[in-house]
Amino acid sequence: MGKVIKQNEIVDLLNSTGIPFQDWIAYTIGKNKNYHYQVEVPYTSLQSGTIDIVAVWFKGELPSSPFDGSIFLIIEAKKANPQIKNWIFIKDMHTQYHKYYASSFISITDKAPHIERALTFPDLNYLTQEYYDKCINAFEYNHQLKLNRNTEEKIYRSLLQVHEGLNGFAQKDPVLQRITFNFANETIYIPVVVTTANLFTAEYDPEKVELPEGILDPDKTDIKEVQWLTYEFPITRELSIVRSLDVRTCTEKLTTFIVAGKHWAEFLKKVFVIYGKGQVVDKYLLK
Known about the structure:
287 residues; alpha+beta; eight-stranded mixed beta sheet; four-stranded mixed beta sheet; 12 strands
């Protein structure tokens, strides 16, 4: 007779996976009457797979939102290793990039997919383009401040997975698009990684990097723990949904939200307040 496995042992194994965390994320979406959602949504992109969760907010279900369209959240749930659960993100600090920066999201109309630029999310504190975090690098460390040098880097893989899902889902059967356009003439796709990790951003002046070691002075480096942040994920041609020789209609990066799980419920309540280019409400600037 084989060994009898106790219930607590099975629960321990279940807790070592990301399944309970993913179910909690979906449950939280379901509690919010403004969203419809589905879990384990299949897609085919660079390879076949499933999106952890797809949540949709349809036009008209929240009249107070300024966005005149539908919103799809493409969600990847990522349970961090309890021993390595701190993710730190480095902002792009090059001023030339900031001068021309505009957030980039995939948008699909009844005509074709395109890049919707310069959206703002004032309730998430992205009042203008200058408020975006513009993170471009990241690493993990544990409670003993040791780096995770695992070649299967969890942060990058999480971002890649959500964009593979976005690529496959946004190009699905046209029937889905027709259903969507019964509610709105435009659909915005927002990639989101939700994690149990603690999130931090790092910002510094590259001119202050000390040579020859190439190191930073802690007193001249700004480290902040954040509820959520935006990451500019580089899009290869294989992952690109909008392909064009015209640089104005294609993109090299897509804006991606990364959210700490403990702030997920708050994020859900605020993300659908979206303003288009040039739409800024004074009351937000006065907060």
